Amino acid sequence: MKLLTGNDLGTGDVVWWTGRDWSRHIEDAVDVGGQGEAILRAEEGARRVNVPYLIDAEATEQGPRPAHIKDRIRALGPTVRPDLTLKPADADAGAWVI
Amino acid sequence: MVDPITVNTNAGETLLRFRDDVVHDEPAVTLDAFLGQTNATAVRLEAGDDARELLEHLGQIALVEISFPTFRDGRGYSAARILREAGFEGELRAAGDVLVDQIPHMRRCGFDSFAPEKPVDAATLTKLLALYPQPYQKAADARVPVWKLRHG
Amino acid sequence: MYRYDEYDQSIVDARVEEFRDQVERRLSGALTEDQFKPLRLMNGLYLQLHAYMLRVAVPYGTLDSRQMRMLGHIARKYDRGYGHFTTRQNIQYNWIKLADAPDILAELATVQMHAIQTSGNCIRNISSDQFAGAAADEVADPRPWAELLRQWSTFHPEFTYLPRKFKIAVIAADEDRAAMRLHDIGIQLLTRDGVLGAKIFVGGGMGRTPMIAHEVKDFITADHLMSYLEACLRVYNRYGRRDNIYKARIKILLHEIGVDAYREQVEAEFAAIRDLGIDPPLAELERITAMFTGPDFASDAPDTVDRADPDFAVWLDQNVAAHKQPGHAIVTISLKPIGGIPGDASADQIDLVADLAERYGHDELRVTHAQNIVLPHVRKADLYVIWTALRDAGLAEANLDLISDIIACPGLDYCSLANARSIPLAQKIGERFAGRQRELGELKLKISGCINACGHHHAGHIGILGVDKKGTENYQLLLGGSGAEDVSLGKITGPGFDEDGVVDAIERVTDRYVALREADERFLDTYRRVGMQPFKEAIYG
């Protein structure tokens, strides 16, 4: 599957395209399929999100899992500071990244 | 001159000028053309051209236009200073991808005329030009560096 | 220490307003990201993996307790309670909101600090020797010269859109504690016939093509330093490559045209501009120097230290250096606790070191290029109480220049350029060697998470470079680099490793070193004596 991601213009937060809007949580991301380039261009025009780009991901039971480790770290947060990730209470969250 | 005069040229360009003489209307020729045909009075330098090649002809030149192919290409800043350091008093024009936030530094390097590809916001430019009370360095403009204010 | 006058303050204040306006134009959509990026970078604001990152300048690594407390305040109020000290003596915050950045700069300006030119293709923060003003081996304090350079380079109108970034370091001792020869311009102060002047090195740097700077000018006096450096920069600005970002640093220009041709061009440029009044009068350097005369040291401070506490004695031997003033010492506070994140400090830790500096250290602090903090002027009689306070705050790791005193870039945990994580590897190495690091002696280990070499891997006695191998993290091992006065560039041992594999490989290297070392040879000395081969055999069998 293809996901669209970027960083929020104001906060810099990592965000994912949900089909209608942007979410901080990759679980909300949708497969943009062949529409990725068109959505990307439209969203670039809207200027809410910095440098949006398309990535490959795999659909899993826990939700989309990006193909590249960089985007998995973006989705979770720094692996060396579990307390600062999006899932501070989940001791196994880091295993999802590696 | 603190604020620029906006001039529309015959060629359809909008110029921001910090000088009040008449706009030079002879088209600028390339450096190669100028060096081969020495009666021209306006020259256009590309970013990679050597401004020093003009130094022995400065007396006959009224306008030097320096090209900025992208705003990231800073070679023109050095070209401008070289010409001013050699005593050039004609019009020095920055043309191309010139952004409003760059104009204050360009003024310091000796540019006194601007032909930006995309229009610059006049209010922003006015604000930016008045922002810094004094510079740290001596450059090609008349502004007095901080060290001179400190020590006279 | 340098204190702003009304001119300095008005320039920094104006910068805050300028950036506030630029941020407003970006948020309103008047500026595109492409146009805004160079403007925000010129103020140290990056967009990293998780958020904006703001890099705050610590000019030549010197600050006082009030400034240090401000860094802690910013960590608490605008970030997530910590900051990261960098290899260029700066600090960066990882979780900044764009709209907050102007307010942060405004707060910094109240304590004479800023983020000017901490990124972008311009002259960056001037770095220096963290022991400046305290070291017994310096010919002069290099910081007045660095401050002169700070002012000259701040908003330099000609050199703001250089082909690439430009880093300058100034030192004044034969021992190089600032990796001077690995800077675009390295300056070493020295005296000749009783006159203080500078030797100029050009074209050093790390990155994907590491090079050691060449001597370009044997001696230049202060009255022509600025015009000479303008000549150096102008030749680079005009002729440095702009067609390929990876070949755009000044080291490539020198490599391509040769140091002699470069020197000739600089001399021609210097001849054209040296009498144009670019140089400030010597009175300006004297004005600045007068602010660096140093504290009034107690002349009767006792010169002995009670070593009864064995843990304290270990720290004393490892992290405390000789001071030029009897009865005094230089303390390096390690930001490399075993298992910790190299260079990170919490807001509480930042406040603590500020308190210690104010109470015991003549109100001075330094940041080192090895990502540690220094109290440059403390009385030996106060060392034990300082150590106790540091120990209670988790800041008393006795590992200065040992294998766990690792320089590491933020790596893939934070950085959008990285290919591999650096920090978890640093943590594993620290844990693996914690018990035997003193036995291994001085061993500088440096980790970069990509080829840009922010973690100085080329200059590590042992260096590690993280690469992306088909989507997984892989680490190459290098041996034999040095960023000090015995500068050299490390060489890759061979095929790379996964994270645990590289830790094992380092253990095989250090085991072989212990077997081969003679007398008090450091790892680097043994490597230089025996070469790569024995270590290759140890690693790859």
From TrEMBL, chain A:
InterPro entries: DUF2849. Pfam families: DUF2849. This is DUF2849 domain-containing protein. It comes from Sphingomonas sanguinis. The lineage of its organism: Bacteria, Pseudomonadati, Pseudomonadota, Alphaproteobacteria, Sphingomonadales.
TrEMBL record, chain B:
InterPro entries: UCP030820 (IPR008318). This is DUF934 domain-containing protein. It comes from Sphingomonas yabuuchiae.
Automatic annotation (TrEMBL), chain C:
Keywords: 4Fe-4S, Heme, Iron, Iron-sulfur, Metal-binding, Oxidoreductase. Residues 119-270, 406-539 form the Nitrite/sulphite reductase 4Fe-4S domain. GO terms for molecular function: 4 iron, 4 sulfur cluster binding; heme binding; metal ion binding; sulfite reductase (NADPH) activity. Signal peptide: none annotated. The keyword Nucleotide-binding does not apply. Its EC number is 1.8.1.2. Residues 52-109, 339-392 form the Nitrite/Sulfite reductase ferredoxin-like domain. InterPro entries: NIR_SIR_4Fe-4S, NiRdtase/SiRdtase_haem-b_fer, Nit/Sulf_reduc_fer-like_dom_sf, NO2/SO3_Rdtase_4Fe4S_dom, NO2/SO3_Rdtase_4Fe4S_sf. It comes from the Bacteria. This is Nitrite/sulfite reductase.
